[in-house]
Amino acid sequence: MPAWDNTAAPVLLPQGYTILKEKGKQGVAGPQGEVILPAEYDSVVISGKSFLVARDGVWGVFNDRGDLLVPLSYSRIQRQGEVYFVSENGYWGVISRNGEIIIPVDYDRIRRAGEVYMVWQNDMEGVIDGRGNIIIPAEYDRIVRGIDHYRITSGGLSGIAALTGEVLIYPQYDDIRCYKKYCLVTYDGKKGVITTEGNILIPLEYDNLLLEGNKVIGMKNGVREEIMEINPEDFR
After folding, report:
1. N or C: which end of the chain has fewer CB within 10 A?
2. How far apart are CA 74 and CA 86, in angstroms?
3. Contact at 8 Å (CB) between 125 and 141?
4. Taking the complete model, does pTM exceed 0.85, yes or no?
């Protein structure tokens, strides 16, 4: 966190706030000179209409009325949009702009990904929604968001979970690539096709699979085989 210069005179900022300085401590005054926070903090960082403050090595957050939103108990605070990422004892959590805990300070790492959070705990990855509900528990080696699903990997094998977190296909394939209705899967060098519900459409026994027009062509031991006709749109 940046620290303000304690040796300078009070600083008028573009938002109309003033950093107050007294005996090496800092506070905040409003546009009319009213004291919002008394000069009793080691550092003050103004972020929009909130104030990140530090005292005795810990950080907290006040709003522009001087109400405490986040208690001074965190070693680090980072504002990200409308929430605060907070850290304590090396772990991270997320707190709303109203001071409500969205994600408890239990995770090694957190990353915002659109409307959800990717979280890591003991080197395992999970997904939590914007309200703090666990969508996918932190028990996978890797999670990758697709258009309408998550690709989940555990022990080097991959499967598919719905955006709601329901596991549709448990991790059992070396590779899995899902399209509109079907997934191309690979295991032990062989390829096949399954539905997005996990039902086998083409058995896992081909060296390669090709889509030519509306035909699925399989290659096995150098022999070309026309397996079935299919709607090409279902593989987009």
Report:
1. C
2. 6
3. yes
4. no
Q: Does residue 235 sit in helix, strand or coil?
A: helix
Name residues whose C-beta falls within 8 Å of residue 67's C-beta, 6 or more positions apart in sequence: none
57 vs 52: CA distance, rounded Å: 13
Ordered DSSP codes for 110-142: EEEETTEEEEEETTEEEEEETTS-EEEEEEESE
* Predicted pLDDT of residue 13: 55
The whole domain housing 70 covers: 1-74
Claim to verify: residue 16 and residue 63 sit in the same structural domain: yes
Residue type, 174: D
**20 pLDDT above the threshold of 80:** yes
Quick one: the chain helix, strand, coil %, rounded to 5?
0, 65, 35
More confident residue, 1 or 188: 188
Give the pair of three-digit tokens for residue 216. Answer: 């699925």
* 69 and 13 both lie in a single domain: yes
> Whole-angstrom distance between the N-terminal and C-terminal Cα of the chain?
46
CB 12 within 8 A of CB 20: no
| Number of CB atoms found within 10 A of residue 219's CB | 14
Write the CATH number for 34: 2.40.10
**Domains held by the chain: number:** 2
What is the per-residue pLDDT across 152-187, written as a single tens digit (0 to 9) for each?
A: 999 999 999 999 999 999 999 999 998 888 899 999
What are the tokens at 168? 């549709």
Residue ending a domain, among 74, 94, 128, is 74
